């Protein structure tokens, strides 16, 4: 008896979850449109959306650059570079993001500023450079740096797995054809068939998945004006239930 090679057709479920989400969004929109208090609070909350997008985009770009460098170090022929990369990935991945956030903001940045002033002391005395102060680096950028360091360790593993998934025969064929190492490396990231793990769901989903953890930046007063507005908005509610629709919309 011949077995058909075609896969059986599966019946797709109706996306009820999408309908429920749309109904919730519609209800929130009606609350905002019909209540001056909800409209005022939503206007305040919406200011944080810009901060969230900025932190996510800039943090992901920096984390991608650092992660790519760490991935190349982990695949290097140098034992020292491989060990440094492995140390970075294993340690950073084991540190909670919130702990890393506070350490970078209140310990790491002051240490770097002190070291920078010590190295450039002669240039500062000559008037070429000015003295760098800790308060010159805003808490927003400290949070971005902390998130970039934390997420770069995970992105490094994505890049490393993607590069190692490429067949060695393709790399050897490119080298024997006269391509330089830089050209071979560029082909791995520019051609869809050459780097399936680097260009598909793993990297595409990362910016979206980083939007939620970016809320940890609220532990730092990255935007004092927005924080004061949120405190005033919370004081406007005499009970916690009305703030739930606003939280859902955010």
From TrEMBL:
GO terms for cellular component: ATP-binding cassette (ABC) transporter complex. CDD domains: TM_PBP2. SUPFAM superfamilies: MetI-like. It is a multi-pass membrane protein. The chain crosses the membrane at residues 14-33, 53-75, 95-119, 139-159. It holds the Pfam family BPD_transp_1. One of its GO terms (molecular function) is transmembrane transporter activity. Keywords: Amino-acid transport, Cell membrane, Membrane, Transmembrane, Transmembrane helix, Transport. InterPro entries: AA_ABC_transptr_permease_3TM, ArtM/GltK/GlnP/TcyL/YhdX-like, MetI-like, MetI-like_sf. It comes from the Bacteria. It is found in: Cell inner membrane. Residues 67-186 form the ABC transmembrane type-1 domain. GO terms for biological process: amino acid transport. Belongs to the binding-protein-dependent transport system permease family. HisMQ subfamily. This is Polar amino acid ABC transporter inner membrane subunit. It comes from Nitratireductor aquibiodomus RA22. The lineage of its organism: Bacteria, Pseudomonadati, Pseudomonadota, Alphaproteobacteria, Hyphomicrobiales.
């Amino acid at each position: 008896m011949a077995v058909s090679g075609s896969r059986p057709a599966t019946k797709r479920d109706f996306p009820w979850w999408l309908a429920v989400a749309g109904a919730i969004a519609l209800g929130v929109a009606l609350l905002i449109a019909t209540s001056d208090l909800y409209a005022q609070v939503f206007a305040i909350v919406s200011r944080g959306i810009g901060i969230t997008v900025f932190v996510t985009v800039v943090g992901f770009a920096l984390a991608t650059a650092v992660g790519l460098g760490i991935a190349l170090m982990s695949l290097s022929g140098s034992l020292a570079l491989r060990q440094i990369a492995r140390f970075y990935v294993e340690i950073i991945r084991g540190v909670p993001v919130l702990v890393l956030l506070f350490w970078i903001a209140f310990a790491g940045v002051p240490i770097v500023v002190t070291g920078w002033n010590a190295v450039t002391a002669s240039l500062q005395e000559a008037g070429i450079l000015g003295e760098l102060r800790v308060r010159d680096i805003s808490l927003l950028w400290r949070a971005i740096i902390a998130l970039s360091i934390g997420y770069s360790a995970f992105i490094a593993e994505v890049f490393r797995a993607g590069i190692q998934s490429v067949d060695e025969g393709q790399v050897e064929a490119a080298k024997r054809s006269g391509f330089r190492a830089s050209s071979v490396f560029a082909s791995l990231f520019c051609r869809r068939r050459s780097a399936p793990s680097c260009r598909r769901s793993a990297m595409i989903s990362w910016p979206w998945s980083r939007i939620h953890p970016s809320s940890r930046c609220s532990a730092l007063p990255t935007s004092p004006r927005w924080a004061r507005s949120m405190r005033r908005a919370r004081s406007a509610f005499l009970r916690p239930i009305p703030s739930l629709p606003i939280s859902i919309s955010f």
